Q: What sequence folds into this?
């Protein structure tokens, strides 16, 4: 399977789909969420986005579906192009697809020896190999600290600097060997996963794209339209939580001149929905997923 959709039932129910409505799947992937949306919209329409060329192979043969091979940060431009504003719901399953993880050449998995790539959009030029070999030590420290939440980010950057002065670090295994001394005993896989997460976020500007998606959703959703976001790590979830609660990324509710709170959404679930044990047993990659749902006021 290209990618098993996570929290499928819960996210589709969260959209509160109306027949004949216009919906957005911001992360098409294997098409699992999109197919469920299509089952429920009647004569409505679905506009989906995916920046990975491989996802285009999964396009459903359905006239109601438009699949756009672009990052969802360009959602506003394309929805206006197709005269599809406002929309009745936006769903985004943020993160890496199973296909990307299982494809050795993409460099997303610790299981394979592969070139340091980590691009979701292979038309882009910046790769993890460039970051590891060309970024300054200070910039590397910031990436590992801010995006990997690694307290020993300075040591990691120092070891990379030491290794790359001898030879370029070109592959996933070479990087692991270069910084292996920093990995806590017994927690090596968790440590390396955070390192690769940090590099992946930088390569794809994932947090910047997520911020744009959230900001644009206020303009693009109709009143009563639903925003449904599935995230997989604390950096993403914090942005989503704060924005849905307060309309900004700091999570601080601001008030207008009259003292009224300037909020944009009504929270459908105050606490995130997480996968049940059965789903986690069936799909281990769902274990860190958090689903948040809100309705535009």
A:
């Amino acid at each position: 399977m290209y990618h098993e959709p996570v929290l499928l039932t819960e996210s589709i129910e969260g959209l509160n789909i109306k027949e004949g409505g216009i919906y957005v799947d911001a992360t098409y992937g294997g098409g699992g969420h999109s197919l469920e949306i299509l089952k429920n919209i009647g004569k409505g329409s679905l506009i989906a986005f995916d920046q990975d060329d491989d996802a285009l192979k999964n396009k459903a043969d359905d006239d109601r579906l438009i699949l756009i091979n672009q990052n969802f940060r360009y959602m506003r431009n394309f929805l206006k192009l197709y005269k599809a504003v406002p929309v009745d719901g936006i769903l985004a399953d943020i993160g890496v697809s199973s296909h990307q993880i299982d494809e050795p050449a993409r460099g997303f998995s610790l299981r394979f020896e592969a070139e340091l790539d980590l691009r979701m959009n292979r038309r882009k030029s910046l790769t993890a190999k460039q970051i590891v070999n060309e970024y300054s030590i200070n910039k590397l420290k910031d990436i590992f600290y801010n995006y990997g939440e690694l307290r020993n980010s300075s040591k990691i950057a120092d070891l990379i600097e030491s290794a790359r002065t001898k030879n370029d670090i070109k592959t996933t295994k070479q990087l692991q060997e270069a910084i292996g001394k920093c990995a806590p005993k017994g927690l090596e896989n968790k440590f390396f996963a955070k390192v690769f997460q940090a590099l992946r976020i930088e390569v794809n500007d994932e947090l910047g794209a997520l911020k744009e998606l959230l900001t644009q959703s206020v303009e693009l959703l109709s009143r009563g339209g639903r925003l449904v976001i599935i995230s997989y790590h604390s950096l993403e979830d914090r942005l989503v939580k704060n924005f849905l609660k307060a309309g900004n990324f700091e999570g601080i509710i601001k008030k207008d001149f009259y003292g009224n709170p300037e909020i944009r959404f009504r929270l459908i679930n105050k606490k995130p929905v997480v996968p049940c044990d059965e789903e986690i047993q069936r799909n281990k990659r769902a274990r860190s997923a958090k689903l948040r749902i809100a309705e535009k006021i």
Summary: The radius of gyration is 20 Å. The mean pLDDT is 95. The domain at 104-204 is CATH 1.10.150.170 (DNA polymerase; domain 1). The beta strands are 22-25, 45-49, 65-68, 87-93, 221-231, 265-267, 290-296.
